[in-house]
Amino acid sequence: MKTLVLTAHPDLSKSRINRKWFETFAETDGITLLDLTRLGGPTLNFNVAEQQDFLLAHDRIVFQFPLYWYSAPPVLKAWMDQVLTYGFAYGPSGTKLAGKELLLATSTGGPEDSYHAGGYNNFSMDELLKPFQQTALLTGMTYLRPFVFHGAAVASDEDIIASKATVLAHVLDPELNPAIKKARLDKMLEEDAKLAARVST
């Protein structure tokens, strides 16, 4: 599985959490890592053909970003607007991303219990991230369970350091794809059935 991480943070040098994740991904073999803020520059303009080639060369696409006003920072929106084009990502002939996986790795300032009905933020993270899920569905990608780090505003240094291993394990877990997990479980059941049949004879 070839993994592409697209980091969308306005200023990684000022980040406590996303910078640590970025550094962890950079040190990991098998991950291609792009800093969209650096690539897009002040005008947030991207080399579309180059970015599309990156997408085509990888199986799992990861959007890494801090949650900004219940959405992504402007740099990720600009990248999506420019790169996920008609005829490439969607439309009658836009099937280039079909079969790939989309995974989000995001951080929030508020605590986890504020993201639910009746909480300060009223909605769950699954609800707030629906636009990304719909983007995956429209482009034929498999939307995977997001990784969310809550409470960044009050997180201890120890919590942040611990999140490095957790986010990396999540991003590299092949069984986030339910089809892959089901295939493994089906194989185990088949092997158990064969073993039971041999024992009964």
From TrEMBL:
Transmembrane segments: none annotated. It comes from Pseudovibrio denitrificans. The keyword ATP-binding does not apply. This is Glutathione-regulated potassium-efflux system ancillary protein KefG. It comes from the Bacteria. Residues 1-165 form the Flavodoxin-like fold domain. InterPro entries: Flavodoxin_fold (IPR003680), Flavoprotein-like_sf (IPR029039), KefG/KefF (IPR046980). SUPFAM superfamilies: Flavoproteins. GO terms for molecular function: electron transfer activity; FMN binding; NAD(P)H dehydrogenase (quinone) activity. The lineage of its organism: Bacteria, Pseudomonadati, Pseudomonadota, Alphaproteobacteria, Hyphomicrobiales. Keywords: Oxidoreductase.
